[in-house]
Amino acid sequence: MTASVAGLLPDSTGHFGKFGGRFVPEALIAALEQLDAAYRHAQADEAFQAEFGMLLRDYAGAPSMLYEAQRLSTEVGARILLKREDLNHTGAHKVRNVLGQALLTRQMGKKRIIAETGAGQHGVASATAAALLDLECVVYMGEEDTRRQALNVARMKLLGATVIPVTTGSRTLKDAINEALRDWVTNVDTTHYLLGTAAGPHPFPALVRDFVRGIGVEARQQCLDRTGALPDAVAACVGGGSNAIGAFHAFVPDESVRLYGFEAGGDGVDTGRHAASITGGATGVLHGARTFLLQDEDGQTVESHSISAGLDYPAVGPEHAWLHETGRATYEPVTDAEAMAAFKLLCRTEGIIPAIESAHAVAGALRTVPALAADLGRPPTVLICLSGRGDKDVETAGSWFEIL
Amino acid sequence: MSVSKAFSQGRAALIGYLPAGFPTVDKGIDAMRAMVECGVDAIEVGFPYSDPVMDGPVIQRATETALAAGVRAADVLRTVERVAAAGAPVLVMSYWNPIERYGVDRFARDLASAGGAGLITPDLIPDEAAEWIAAADEHQLDRVFLVSPSSTDTRLAMTAGACRGFVYATAVMGVTGARAQVSEAAPTLVSRVRPVTGTPVAVGLGVRDGAQAAAVGAYADGVIVGSALVSALADGGIDAVRTLSADLAAGVRG
Predict the structure, then answer these.
(1) CA-CA distances (angstroms) from residue A91 to A81, A86, B186?
(2) Residue of A83, A94, A110, A392 with catalytic role
């Protein structure tokens, strides 16, 4: 694996090996081409990059801190570094992506954004960026989620967004994506689809990755500054996979750094109730890309299950599929129970309430410590992407631990 | 049997869509055979799929019903076989993942042996279709890709060049569903496709009655009707499908 290989992907048609590509109606191809051109232009445009950098710094709070979790480190026998994306404005790494895409929307001369959301985090982030840049914002959200996440619906409305409950299909995140795609096909001249993760048709996986890859770029330098060396491992949770690809990408050329993506194992992969697309799925096409997905023998998408709404998605971004296939990154499931144990451990040892998504990364990272230590002959340095904060999850956690 | 037969009658061909398995597999077959008897020239059999991003509410509801009843690939192929036996060319319309999962070459082989004419692929563009194009050649199947009002001239030529049987022109920017007015973008799109291909051009998305079919048939080689037939079947059963089919068939026959 060399830097140049990592930097060249995807190829010009959006493929990471056999993954990625564009599996969408022809009606969307023109918009994807326009987006690709705008994105390429923005990458080389100093004014765009300066504005993006200013917003990340002054508005979102980047670079997020790298915090050495000393009590947790002592507890588990490793040096644990937490990349504090949970301290960003809106409470997660997602603000990086929405700011980048909202700026692109303005550059393309479009006035309206649409977004999908599961629990509401990406919807809130999209509504935030839309308010900031004076764009109309429509968020598609599964009907059941609008009830379960009434507070996030209220947040989006406070920020001026319209929230449309989705009543088709399984009424979950994947159906919210379907509805957003239908809206986009119909209104593509005026509308940008602000996709919330590093998935979907080309150029979304590359574009979202590049807007969030600051996570890893910052963390790599922060780790060098603090420890004088690269970490032995980088760990992140993987649903669609945006925080993970953001954390991994700068480290892909560093062969000594092991990359671990932790998927939502739900009740356990062997129970069939999980969201582990790589571990428990198969290659196929969903939402515009070839990747790993949960599907039945006929290629029908199977519903995913996870305690974490942000990981509850039956597919994964195509670059993760490729990193898995090449062996550069390792993907493992973490069950609901393991994630909640790590959630509690982080609360009690560090005074940090993580998003349940991020608790999957903590749980998985801690699980790898004994093998890493044995392999290296010393306590390993493990960098964990703490992708979001847990305010939104207090009700779920309170119920899990039977304190509410 | 290629679909080309449907386009060689000196008038616009009428192509009717219903999903397999709606309201049941056998009733769906009966409805499609009734369409053929009432003058529909070719049948599109929809392969029900869990995530139909190109479809509006009418077809979504019908395919959800079919999936909830457990419709499988074998039911789609049985529908093709029974409807083809009625004498009209039959194409399958499917989102890509069910075909890829089944096995592209295997599906092409089984579709051909069921007497199917070919496959319409709403979310597969020729750029990603090398395996399907080879399988279609191997099994002598028509392959129908979609063009859109937003397609560039370059893409129109490339896509039309990859089509065999006909070119599917989506008349409006949007999902499937009957509309009060037939799109004004459609004649323009057809006139842009004609110079780049000798393959017939059929227009779909929005046609609901004989008058609209006649209007589209005046400038296109084929008229595709989907949601209106699905609504007819859902609301009025096979009798309503017969009435609408006869009206549409009279429309294309002027």
Answers:
(1) 19, 5, 47
(2) A94
